[in-house]
Amino acid sequence: MATSKPRTSSFSRNLATVPSSTPGLKYGPNGTIFISSGIPDLDKILGGGFPLGSLVMVMEDAEAPHHMLLLRNFMSQGLVHKQPLLYASPSKDPKGFLGTLPTPGSSKDDKSRDRDPENENGLRIAWQYKKYFGDNQHHFDSNRDVKHEYCHDFDLRKPLEKHFISGQHIDCVSILDSPNLAALRDCCATFLAQFSRNDSSISSAGRIAIQSFCAPQCKYSNMEWDMLSFIRSLRSMVRSSNAVAVVTFPPSLLSPSFSRRWQHMADTLLSVRAILDEDKEMAKLLTGYQDMVGLLNVHKVAHINTQVPVILDATTFSIKLQKRRFLVLESLNQAPIDCSSGTSYGTSASCSGSSKTGTLDF
Description:
This protein is of the alpha/beta class. Helices cover 26% and strands 21% of the residues. It contains ten helices and 14 strands.
């Protein structure tokens, strides 16, 4: 008698399996698989990182190139995990930009973790049970290391090592002299074809980084309908693949109606703003204003495989450089009532923590 197959519901989701040893990938709620943005604090804000199959758009600031900080960390994180990368830029030599990517470094938290005597000498208290672990303890340590390698702290002062850049999995495209977007669309389609969701397992994920998409030096910069059509097709191609696309654009160069259309097409929408050096009113309002280099606004968070939107405790975060090297995002805290330079009633905490004072969203 033939054995009957287990009956599955028509509403069951066919999930691809991710090997536990695959770096740079992790599971989230509702079967979502994330890749890291390259910024640990941003991953915490977004609930794990960028979901596979999502389009991330970053609105640039005309006063300062803070969007390049996000783009560099995103690209470096993928190269460290040996994930294929497609980079498109309006510059003549996009490969030269790879030399400005930061390298993984050791922040203050990493050093304190590495110096932990329990991590160095294993189990100290129950030392007599150590012999019973054997290979299982080694397997646990390897899994713990993989978890820590999901997102790195990148040192903005040191360039990425050459062996990460010299691989064959990097494609650089210049969109400066392109009369239309057909060539860029074909490059994206060819790149995303190797990350089809039809595969039963995910061994790697792809990353697409497009810098200053509607830059005025591009010949197609006045073709707003063509650019909107490209973004729509890019989102469709990315949604059916195991990849993430990050597109930065200056909204001031678009008409208000098209700018709103572009923002609507994004799964995750971010914006960056520069901070004026002599804004005394803002310095009185916020704690630690002197250490800020910019502001990050989270306008939309991707919610794939669910209809429940993500509600954040705060949508505006300060961009700081820890030790002038590591990119840090922190929630905004209100300064004391007397406008003194002391600490506020709610101490400055990380974006994942909560403060006693209310956050200020701009």
